[in-house]
Amino acid sequence: MVTIGNAHDDLIHDAVLDYYGKRLATCSSDKTIKIFEVDGENHKLVETLKGHDGPVWQVAWAHPKFGVILASCSYDGKALIWKEENGVWSNIAEHGVHQASVNSVSWAPSEYGAVLLCTSSDGKASVVEFMEDGSQKTMVFQAHAIGANAGSWAPPHKDNIKERRFVTGGCDNLVKIWKFDPQVNNYVEEAVLAGHTDWVRDVAWSSSLLSKSYIASASQDRTVLIWTNDTVGGTSPWKKQLLTEEKFPDVCWRASWSLSGNVLAISGGDNKVTLWKENLSGKWESAGEVDQ
Amino acid sequence: MVKLREVAETATFAWSYDSMPLMATGTLAGAMDDTFSSESALQLWDVFSKDTPLAKFSLDNKFTSLAWSKPSAKYEKGLLAGAFENGAIQLWNSSSLLDNPDLTASSVAEYKKHTESALQVKFNPLQGHILGSSGTKGEIFIWDTNKGSSFSPGQAMSPMDKVSSFSWNNSQSHIFASAGNTSYTSIWELKAKREVLQLSYSGSNLSVVEWHPTESTKLVTASDSDGAPVILTWDLRKHTTPELVLKGHRKGVLSLDWCKQDPSLLLSSGKDDSTILWNPLTGQKLCEYPSLPNWVHETKFAPKLPEVFASASFDKKILVQSLQDTSPPVSAKVNSANEDDFWNQLSSTDTQQPVFEVKQAPTWLQRPVSATFGFGGKIVVTINEQKGSYIKISEFKASKAVEEAARKLDSAIQSSNFKQLCEARAEATEKYTGSNDWTALRDLIDNGKLSLIKKLIPEEKNDEDKQVVDETSVDDEDFFASLGKEKDIVADFVPSGEFTLANDGSFESQTAEKLLAGKNEEALEQCIKDDHILEALVIALNGSESMKKKVKNAYFSKYSSKSTLARVLYSVSNGNVGDIVQNADIGSWKVIASSVLAHSQGKPEFNENFVKLGDRLLESKSSDARDNAIACYIAGDALDKVSAIWVSELENLESFFLKQEDESSTPADARFKALEETIEKVLAYQSTNSATIGSSPESLQGLGHAYREYAEALVNNGHFDLANKILEKIPDTVPGMRLEKERISKSLSKKQNAVKPKAYGGISQASSYAAPQAQGYTPVTPAAPANGTGVSPHSKSNNQAAPFNPYSAAASRAGSVATPVSSKAPAAVPTGLAANPYAPRTALDSLKLQKSPQPGHPSLASSMTPPPPPKTAIKKDVGGWNDLPSTLSSQPPKKTSVPSVPSAYNFHAIQEQNNTPPISRTPSQQFGVPPPPRTLSNTSVSKTTPPPPANSVHQPPRSNKYGPPSSVVQSPQLAGKAELSTPSSGRNTPFNPYAPKVNSQSIESAKIPQASPKIYAGAPPVASPGVSAAMPPPPRNPYAPKQGDIASPAPGIPSAASNIIPPPVTNIIPPAAPQTVPSAYNHAESVPPPPPSFKAQSPAASPAPPAPPAPKYPPGDRSHIPESAQPIYQVLTSELEKLKTKIPEKFSKHLADSEKRINILFDHLNNEDLLSEQTIQELVSLCEAMAKSDYATAAALQNQIALEHVGECGDWMVGVRRLVTMAEAVNQ
């Protein structure tokens, strides 16, 4: 167990390990991003990235095949792309199409290229593709009437990588599934999932390779819904199921799946992180709590 | 500004509590618009999607205030309350308003208690059915909307007039505040039923009041006076003076709204037409929103969506906008040099933008906690507490299923023995698709790759096959013995009686004439032409090849389409059953399979034929097609095909496991079990020697996927090492594989401290290593350091200017001491195994490694970097041969798919395995000492930057000579391994016996500067073909001649390099490139053979393959064979040559094999190692007997040597024995 105290001067909003589990990127209301190297029980601060003009909400490591690349998003309405080369970090790109806080960044499955999904308080989602020649290809669309809080990519389709999807959650209490439509060359709404009674704080599409698709949505209404679908894109509708009948003691801020997609961690406003697993009868059971 | 909507009304408004809030507007009393209309309307809007109202109702009176209650059980969209200038208060059911065009139908109640105007209505935030209203003449009423009752809040402290502001306390439902045109603000207590407090501020009236969203004692007031338009914050516990004075409005303030979700946000609006956002806790003005054309009498956050607020102006405008705006400033939008353009653009652009003075993120965006997963079962949690923020990384093991599987698999992999695993699986009661495979795999492991197919072929066929197979058996002595007698004697036919040669023009006579004239070819043509195939065949029998061919063609073209026999004959006569495999009725596949066994065995198309047969079986979709196809594929060594079948069954398996009710199980576990089953099958199959990766890694893509998924599941439960080992089985060339390996090894490198000890502890040396060490090996220890470090003693003695003698003495002593122990040599093996998991590393890691604290052994380092022998290659080549020499197994050697089975390389290895003479002990001992490699290779890392030159630069020459060129190239890779292995040398008990000394020595040696090269410079350059000229002579050479028969390394092993390259290291590298490697290997042959890997792969084989000795001369060198042994060399060589010309072709392979074995003997002789003087003498006698064709004597001598000098007899002896047998058979 590694504990990093006093990493930032203000609230820390996100901390993410890289592909190898060796480097940790953290971000904070102090407007900075920090990079730590984590080795066994030890950790070392290697860099502090400054460039955002507002709290930094989330960070995301790109797949290493694109280099050592980190994306960050901030209240300043921007997503920034950072790159490390020969130990030197620099800001290599800025994505500034949003008119309000950019609340989430997530990289698409690497098969799609260097593609970043952002969601913003202006209700829009944007998908930026960073082309090899350095140019960017951007698609922006209204995802939620107001306040898109989170976005998460579906794992790549088994047979057809052109079939790209992601899920977003917003302040309209809705979870929406988006699918790329080559005809309009943009993402179109494929399904609207209603079930929460307050803001959807986070959505997470499980990367599980099980035949079913799983999406977890965590909400201000102190519940987490698990949405499942046997044939995504097919005829069957998404089914919803409460992770647990009993409400959580506080707002559910974040839902994240383990890498193999079988364990769900729910971060609650009471600073508790609980873990959940599905049993064979399809019920979700507690798998413990992360010790603080 | 991000304007969301503009509603063209002069109205008071209220937000609903919906997540996407609706807005209600009511025409404002006391205000005239440009139409001077006296009409009043209540309207409902969805400002997020529509420009037009959802509903509109006309009323007689204009509104002074609107309030929307929270939803309740009774009113799902809440109640809407309106206060009117005539003093009435109206209540409507708001959901009914949306559905019902008739306003009265939605009316819930009308309260008429205010005597003049009602000015303000507010619902209690905690008791939603309680409504407060205030009006002129100081009238305040509290309404219970459920009962319709009302009461007065009690006695005022002083007379009031217009009470235009009313605010409920947000945490105490019985507290409210009121303000109006008196200069003070009143606090009321409903339990006490009286006004309890008055707030006043000199120089300013307090006309607007609003409570803190959470703290019961705090509130904010504002002044509508233009003279002192201040906003004050108060804490009632200190009510005499305000806490903060917020200045910014230029004229009187008319409205306040304190954000319910974020106490640090307060909106105000006023007569200066502006709306301002404050942080009332700090007093900072955050933002001024664009001004409206007239007084802004009201501004309100949407209660459930505080990102949005609305401001209502007297100028017939209600503006709905977002709190945030990060769009670039107008100046950036309008950028034209031309003045006209500028104004045009400006007018068409929304020029109005909020001016943010301080960017303050609302708290609802500030996620206080976050947990994310990381590679390797890690979970990262950020926690923000009052005492501070911190990040915690912990590890999490999610799956019991994974734990169990990992344990089983780990032990199977460690021992390289999958039989147990297969048996356990085969015994499982549940039956499902592919559950029979386990029995098949068990047979496969026991009986070789053809066992499955033979089982399926009918009995009688089976016998025949056996014969065929046995013929090819290398080991069948009886066969050789009978070889000479085997010639069938057929009595020649002798015709008798008279006959005529008259030419009657008939076919017969014409042909006979041609034959008599010697025109055989013409006669043949004639026969063919006239369809006398039989005669044609007889003619061709004695004719040329082309004649034979001609007849054959004629025969087949005529008959093959109608006659099965002809068709079969066609294939058989061509020795190629491809046609049968391709075209024969698949229903008789067993016959086809037998034909392949009978005719293709040992031929390159053998595998191809079986694969084709398998393909056809699968296509036929007959019952059992799958199992039969698997048998065929296995016979054909088609890992890709076999695994493709298994992988394709993954989903079936998954659903099978899903149906197994198990309380603790999860769907992910079911998936994992399916994967586990599949991967274990493949691993078990791979553990037999025949499975080959094949030349097209792409064909393994599906398998690669499964491997990766499985490995990730393991890794996410913390089983890095196991995942690593499993991935080693798949070549990097399989798509996606390299990245995955890199990922695991990279993570692993960081984990080394944590993981290593465990990994080592759990690995096989625990059993196999420890035991030998305890018994036999220990005595050797004294010698070990000397040899183990190989180099260091030298360096040391050099340094001390010590004479050489001590060393050779030591060496010889070591030799003798070691003798009894020799069979225990395997000690080295497990070490290698242990290192395995860490094998693949990247250059990056090696860089990292530089930091690792192993300063001591640079010199050794480089020498320790051997080329990574591709495990599969080794395995494959070695596999069948491995069994052979051990003599323990009478089983015929397995035919491996690679025809060139016994590379010289292998033979060395084998030799090592079998020969356990005292002398050879010395070298092997060196290898038996595990620690040096580690330390060494470790250092090599720190020293060695990837490019080969680095090595030579950094290291004393001797490093060069020890490190064959290939090793240099490979060093980065190795480096990684070394990194991990390093620590173990210190920690791992098994190593301890050796470790200390070695370490200290190697450290010493490290201290020895570059001087050593000089000393060695004079050493005779020993020819070492495998090792490039760039390599300076091995330092050992100087001693070699002097040592004579003592410590001379096996000649078969090229260059001194092998000395140093410790088996463990070699062993570490197993995965690497499989098929592609052999070529690289040949080159690498000059590099030490990794005998241990034998051990690793086939634990069942002989107990103790000793480590490889240090050869003095490269293999193939015959120039140093001593006089005394010359006859052996000469006789055996000539016998071999003679045999080559005489041996029937089908045994030429056996001969080649024998030759290789005998070459091993020559290498020993050349290096003067292994063989004792007595053995040599006896061999000489044997050869003399052979030269005299006295095979009986030769055979007897051979037996005698084999019996009396068991320790010296290795593979070479098998070669000698066979040579004698063959020579006898052929020459009789």
From TrEMBL, chain A:
<dbReference type="GO" id="GO:0061700">
    <property type="term" value="C:GATOR2 complex"/>
</dbReference>
<feature type="repeat" description="WD">
    <location>
        <begin position="49"/>
        <end position="83"/>
    </location>
</feature>
<dbReference type="InterPro" id="IPR036322">
    <property type="entry name" value="WD40_repeat_dom_sf"/>
</dbReference>
<dbReference type="InterPro" id="IPR001680">
    <property type="entry name" value="WD40_rpt"/>
</dbReference>
<dbReference type="GO" id="GO:0005789">
    <property type="term" value="C:endoplasmic reticulum membrane"/>
</dbReference>
<dbReference type="GO" id="GO:0036503">
    <property type="term" value="P:ERAD pathway"/>
</dbReference>
<protein>
    <submittedName>
        <fullName>Protein transport protein SEC13</fullName>
    </submittedName>
</protein>
<dbReference type="InterPro" id="IPR015943">
    <property type="entry name" value="WD40/YVTN_repeat-like_dom_sf"/>
</dbReference>
<dbReference type="GO" id="GO:0030127">
    <property type="term" value="C:COPII vesicle coat"/>
</dbReference>
<keyword id="KW-0539">Nucleus</keyword>
<dbReference type="GO" id="GO:0090114">
    <property type="term" value="P:COPII-coated vesicle budding"/>
</dbReference>
<dbReference type="GO" id="GO:1904263">
    <property type="term" value="P:positive regulation of TORC1 signaling"/>
</dbReference>
<dbReference type="InterPro" id="IPR037363">
    <property type="entry name" value="Sec13/Seh1_fam"/>
</dbReference>
<dbReference type="GO" id="GO:0032527">
    <property type="term" value="P:protein exit from endoplasmic reticulum"/>
</dbReference>
<keyword id="KW-0853">WD repeat</keyword>
<comment type="similarity">
    <text>Belongs to the WD repeat SEC13 family.</text>
</comment>
<feature type="repeat" description="WD">
    <location>
        <begin position="193"/>
        <end position="227"/>
    </location>
</feature>
<dbReference type="GO" id="GO:0031080">
    <property type="term" value="C:nuclear pore outer ring"/>
</dbReference>
<dbReference type="GO" id="GO:0051664">
    <property type="term" value="P:nuclear pore localization"/>
</dbReference>
<keyword id="KW-0811">Translocation</keyword>
<keyword id="KW-0653">Protein transport</keyword>
<keyword id="KW-0968">Cytoplasmic vesicle</keyword>
Automatic annotation (TrEMBL), chain B:
<dbReference type="InterPro" id="IPR036322">
    <property type="entry name" value="WD40_repeat_dom_sf"/>
</dbReference>
<comment type="function">
    <text>Component of the coat protein complex II (COPII) which promotes the formation of transport vesicles from the endoplasmic reticulum (ER). The coat has two main functions, the physical deformation of the endoplasmic reticulum membrane into vesicles and the selection of cargo molecules.</text>
</comment>
<dbReference type="GO" id="GO:0016787">
    <property type="term" value="F:hydrolase activity"/>
</dbReference>
<feature type="domain" description="SRA1/Sec31">
    <location>
        <begin position="1097"/>
        <end position="1222"/>
    </location>
</feature>
<feature type="domain" description="Sec16 Sec23-binding">
    <location>
        <begin position="514"/>
        <end position="734"/>
    </location>
</feature>
<dbReference type="GO" id="GO:0070971">
    <property type="term" value="C:endoplasmic reticulum exit site"/>
</dbReference>
<feature type="region of interest" description="Disordered">
    <location>
        <begin position="780"/>
        <end position="804"/>
    </location>
</feature>
<keyword id="KW-0968">Cytoplasmic vesicle</keyword>
<dbReference type="Pfam" id="PF07304">
    <property type="entry name" value="SRA1"/>
</dbReference>
<dbReference type="InterPro" id="IPR040251">
    <property type="entry name" value="SEC31-like"/>
</dbReference>
<feature type="compositionally biased region" description="Polar residues">
    <location>
        <begin position="981"/>
        <end position="991"/>
    </location>
</feature>
<dbReference type="Pfam" id="PF12931">
    <property type="entry name" value="TPR_Sec16"/>
</dbReference>
<keyword id="KW-0853">WD repeat</keyword>
<dbReference type="InterPro" id="IPR024298">
    <property type="entry name" value="Sec16_Sec23-bd"/>
</dbReference>
<dbReference type="GO" id="GO:0007029">
    <property type="term" value="P:endoplasmic reticulum organization"/>
</dbReference>
<keyword id="KW-0653">Protein transport</keyword>
<dbReference type="GO" id="GO:0090110">
    <property type="term" value="P:COPII-coated vesicle cargo loading"/>
</dbReference>
<comment type="similarity">
    <text>Belongs to the WD repeat SEC31 family.</text>
</comment>
<feature type="repeat" description="WD">
    <location>
        <begin position="246"/>
        <end position="279"/>
    </location>
</feature>
<dbReference type="GO" id="GO:0005198">
    <property type="term" value="F:structural molecule activity"/>
</dbReference>
<keyword id="KW-0256">Endoplasmic reticulum</keyword>
<feature type="region of interest" description="Disordered">
    <location>
        <begin position="914"/>
        <end position="1043"/>
    </location>
</feature>
